[in-house]
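Researcher: I'd like a structural prediction for the single chain below. Treat it as a standalone chain; there are no partners to consider.
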Amino acid sequence: MAKKREYKVGIDIGGTKMFAVLFDGERIVEEYTLATPKDSIEHFIIMIVALLEPLLEKAQKDKAQVNGIGLGIAGVVDFKTRKVTRASNIKVIDNTDFVSQLEKKLGLPVFIDNDANCSLRAEINIGSARKFDNACLIVIGTGIGSSWWNNGDVHLGVDGCAGEIGHNVIDYENKTTLEEAYHKLTQKNPLNMATEAYRGDVLAIKSFEEFGSLLGIALANLVNTVNPGIIVLYGGGTGAADLFMPNIKKMMKEYIWEERARKTKVVLAKLGNKAGAIGAAMLVE
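Model: Treating it as a single chain, here is the predicted structure.
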């Protein structure tokens, strides 16, 4: 008797959109996208269920078993309670028990992790960082996030809140974090700013160059601290990477202390904007 097909669902929940995939362990079988609701937790749960409907219908059509759902969230996760304690761009989910509510509604186990951790998990297994045991990933999207893979797993830290590079202060005089600088330089709309830059707008070009310099300094500090073999850039903001990548590499070369570490590769995610959802699916046991 042939073994029943098994699928996993992964959802990348960002500040503006939610992207879900039906994953068979090697490839995406089906995918679907909806806007991220921010008005209430009730609406948020309704939209998650709506996002899953076409994927579960596909699994049923394929006569496949869905083993569970993984969620990658742009926020800090308390892994003991399975609650998001701080989601800067989706505040309605903060400290709510929406994971258990989803399990009751769907009758499936639900797993949760930070979106950067999920993206790095995917890139380590089947993406740009596949050959590396020590790697970092930087999310450049609605905000700035990060994750560090070491000794066969994501490093979570004592309280599960490691990897928040976006909240590192890069301007001590004005107490400005990297993420705040990114928002200011891109006017909280990196896509529009990139469009203006590609049209030749000098101020837009300079904004991305300055962001590249700030991110390059932050990455140099990261290399000086944890010495990864590779740094992967992921997220919607990387669509304009050619505008800020030169300054990233320039600042890293200047501020990385050890000469051997200056060879640290900085690359774009091989899985593109699908890494987060694929990595979330990989949470399912």
